[in-house]
Amino acid sequence: MGQPAKQQKPAAAKRSRCPLSLHRTGQWYKKIHGKFYYFGKDKEAAVRAYEEQVTYLHTGTGAAPASMNTLTLRICAWKR
After folding, report:
1. Is the dihedral of CA 31, 37, 38, 42 positive or negative?
2. Can you tell me the distance from the alpha carbon of 38 to that of 10, in angstroms, rounded to the nearest whole number?
3. Helix or strand or coil: residue 50?
């Protein structure tokens, strides 16, 4: 008898290059400096919103100005 055949380990899953994580509520979010920032349910739109605000969020100056903050624009349009 020969030696037993070696079992191969399954290939590790490749990590997504998306900077955001999916919350159990279905929203895409990012934890920055201990705070959670939510960017919506649509992945592409959430990534775009994150990329617009990334420098403001990581420098600690808060969210982007209202002209760039799409969530603020949506809320203002909704309250009219």
Report:
1. negative
2. 34
3. helix
Please list the pLDDT of the chain residue by residue as tens digits (80 residues).
Answer: 567 677 776 655 555 688 899 999 999 999 988 889 999 999 999 999 999 888 888 887 666 665 555 555 455 555 54
Q: Hey, how many other C-beta atoms are within 10 angstroms of the C-beta on 46? A: 21
As a whole number of angstroms, the distance between CA 70 and CA 80 comes to 16
CA atoms within 13 A on the CB side of 53: 28
Report the C-alpha gap between 50 and 38 in whole angstroms.
9
Contact yes or no for 20/39 (Cβ under 8 A): yes
